[in-house]
Amino acid sequence: MLDKLKFILVMAVFGTVGLFVRNIDLEPGEISFYRCVIAMVVITTIVLVRRRGDWRIPLHGQWLLILVSGLVLGLNWMFLFAAYKYTTISNGILCYYMAPIFVLILSPLVLKEKIPLRKYFFVLTALVGMGFLVGANLRQVGGRHLIGLGFGILSAVFYAGLILLVKKIKNIPSLESTMFQFISAVVTMFPYIFMTYGIRAFHMNMRSTVFLLLLGLLHTGICYIFYFGLLQKLKSDVIAIYCYMDPIVSILLSIILLGDRLNLPQIIGGVLILGSTLLSEISGESPALEKAETDK
Predict the structure, then answer these.
(1) Tens place of pLDDT for every residue, the chain, 296 residues?
(2) Domain count for the chain
(3) What's the domain range around 149?
(4) Is 17 in contact with 174 (CB distance < 8 Å)?
(5) Domain assignment of residue 85, yes or no
(6) Looking at residue 284, what DSSP letter applies?
(7) How far is CA 39 from the centre of its chain?
(8) DSSP-derived 3-state class of residue 57
(9) For residues 188 and 180, what is the distance between their CA atoms, to the nearest angstrom?
(10) Phi and psi dihedrals of 169, rounded to 5?
(11) What are the residues whose beta carbons fall under 8 Å from the beta carbon of 223, sequence distance 6 or more?
């Protein structure tokens, strides 16, 4: 029971990411990059302490997969943070949770996996839910929010790509694999960030600095340590259900603290998206549950 409570708490903290991003005075790409930098330092330190300073971690010829997955991880966060900047946190997180559906669609092509026919019903249901969400924003608020929805869907696509890439990485412990992904994300994103924005982190105001440090240290450092450990202790169906504390907390906080409002079509769309992805994951083995340590 204690492990379940810990996991719920971790997922609740993950649900505050949108609020933190909203309070950081940087562009989404910059936030993603600096989060990767902080996470790289934290996770690398943890790995070295556990391995007693031993850097000898064989990559088994999978360095290219790790390099690409690190870049995809950074882009995944960048588009998610852009969604939070352009539209409501509720819209952004609901789009993001389309990722398991994209995994279902792409798995037969990328992984040559056979997907049970019943799961295509969940795909259709989620797409109908996204239609409700887009339609509601089109009628109510228009342009800027639709751009945000587009960024949210892109973040889900890149997250789905990350899941599929990680599934191909074999014989490397999860924490070590994640460390290399963060290193890769920092290395591959640095030229773009430097040439586009320069190094602006040192010129942020105090509020942005505090929120950025917490985003890296709390959400991607401390919570990751608990998250990795709990993944090994809890059953997959329990993890699948409790993971949905993330969007629930995100939506509730955006309503309570930011004054966001959901109309009926948005509520219907959200229920269809989250319901279909949840049922898809607990109805059998789900790609989204395997090595999903970099999804938050």
Answers:
(1) 788 888 889 889 999 999 999 999 999 999 999 999 998 998 888 888 888 877 777 777 888 888 899 999 999 999 999 999 998 898 899 999 888 888 888 877 777 777 777 777 888 888 888 888 877 766 655 567 888 989 999 999 999 898 888 888 888 887 888 888 899 999 999 998 988 888 887 788 899 999 999 998 888 878 877 877 777 777 766 777 788 888 989 999 998 888 888 888 888 888 998 888 888 777 654 444 443 444 45
(2) 1
(3) 2-289
(4) no
(5) yes
(6) S
(7) 14
(8) coil
(9) 12
(10) -85, 120
(11) 10, 13, 14, 296
| Residue 26 belongs to some domain of the structure | yes
Residue 294 belongs to a domain: no
Angle between helix 2-14 and 245-258 (nearest 10): 50
Whether 295 is in a domain gets the answer: no
Q: Which amino acid is at 79?
A: F
What is the separation, in whole angstroms, between the first and last Cα of the chain?
Answer: 23
Q: What is the pTM of this model?
A: 0.85
